[in-house]
Amino acid sequence: MTETLAIGAYTEIDERSLEADLGALRAQTLDEALALPEETRSAITAIAYKGHSAFGGDAMEAFPKLGLVANFGVGYDAIDVDAARTRGIAVTNTPDVLNDDVADLAVAMLLMQGRRMVQGDAHVRSGAWARGEAFPLNRKMSGATVGILGLGRIGHAIATRLAAFGMELHYWSRSPKETPAGWTHHADPMDLARAVDILVVSLVGGPETEGMVSAGMLRVLGGEGVVVNISRGSTIEEAALLDALESGRIAGAALDVFASEPEIDPRFASLGNVVLQPHQGSGTHATRAAMGRLQRDNIAAFHAGRALLTRVN
């Protein structure tokens, strides 16, 4: 009987690889996995997990021999890591392989928002340009002052790209990082927001960062402020963000993640000062394939008794 269970909506290529490499049993959702016969669940020692449903201790108890939950994605906040630790279950994720794609998207969204590229595309398609209608001037991006809230691997990759635009770099992390000369560390997130015009949110998800971008932080960011979020929707007080966008207390936002995705707050749709994306930061063929390989490699290492490649607990 198979020892590996894959939970989630995998691509056809990943499904074939999970079957070929690991003989994995498939379940579309965690609920579907929990509904499997007890005999089947009792044989499972490793789970490949791809989803946002909370995977807590009670669910882990349904798999008495479980030793590994291998997450598809760098963010693993859906998995109760403490519950896994107390049960002797390892958790892995798929970091690094997606850094470039997420950083590229963050920069692209920022440029789209500041240069109003969505509106410019519509202006051309509608025939307004051909009719001689002037397109409004928009914001200069090079040389801006930007703050990275969370200077981890992805945050650093974003900052490096923005430095090439001649931007003044500020960042928050719990302690100063080794950075190029001229990058300024802020010990307080509020001080970071006060010092910059553009705030890029690159935090890990979970309770510790929930609502870190607060109404107060948006207020000190100010009327020229722009928020870019490629982390988790939970890191921003979304109602406060919508209020600030609607009232003009900040200039705009570029968002790849939302609090209730994919059913996002309908207030976003009526805003002309936002760029909205469908949580596609890592969404390229090459990177998703690399994420799948790393997830499977962790499971293969577990079954072989080797050290896990990217253990988080």
The number of helical segments is 12
Distance between the termini: 28 Å
What is the residue-mean pLDDT, rounded to a whole number? 97
Low-pLDDT segments, ≥5 res:
none
> What is the number of domains?
2
Strands of the biggest beta sheet: in what spatial order? 8-7-6-9-10-11-12
Classification by helices and strands: alpha/beta
Note the main sheet: 7 strands, parallel
CATH superfamily of the largest domain: NAD(P)-binding Rossmann-like Domain
* CATH architecture level-2 label of the largest domain: 3-Layer(aba) Sandwich
Order of helices and strands: EHEHHEHEHEHHEHEEHEHEHEEH
Instruction: Indicate the proportion of strand residues.
Output: 15-25%
CATH topology-level name of the largest domain = Rossmann fold
Which percent range fits the helix content?
25-40%
Concise overview:
By secondary structure, the protein is of the alpha/beta class. The chain contains twelve helices and twelve strands.
How would you sum up this structure, described in words?
With 313 residues, the protein is of the alpha/beta class. The protein is built from 12 helices and 12 strands. It has helices spanning 12-22, 30-34, 38-43, 57-61, 81-86, 99-114, 117-125, 153-163, 189-195, 215-221, 238-247, 285-304, and strands at 4-8, 25-27, 46-50, 68-71, 90-92, 145-149, 168-172, 184-186, 198-201, 226-229, 252-255, 274-276. Strands 8-7-6-9-10-11-12 form a 7-stranded parallel beta sheet. The protein has a 5-stranded parallel beta sheet with strand order 2-1-3-4-5. Helix 8 (153-163) links the parallel strand 6 (145-149) and strand 7 (168-172). The longest helix is centred in the C-terminal third of the chain and has 20 residues, at 285-304. The relative contact order is 0.14. The mean pLDDT is 97.
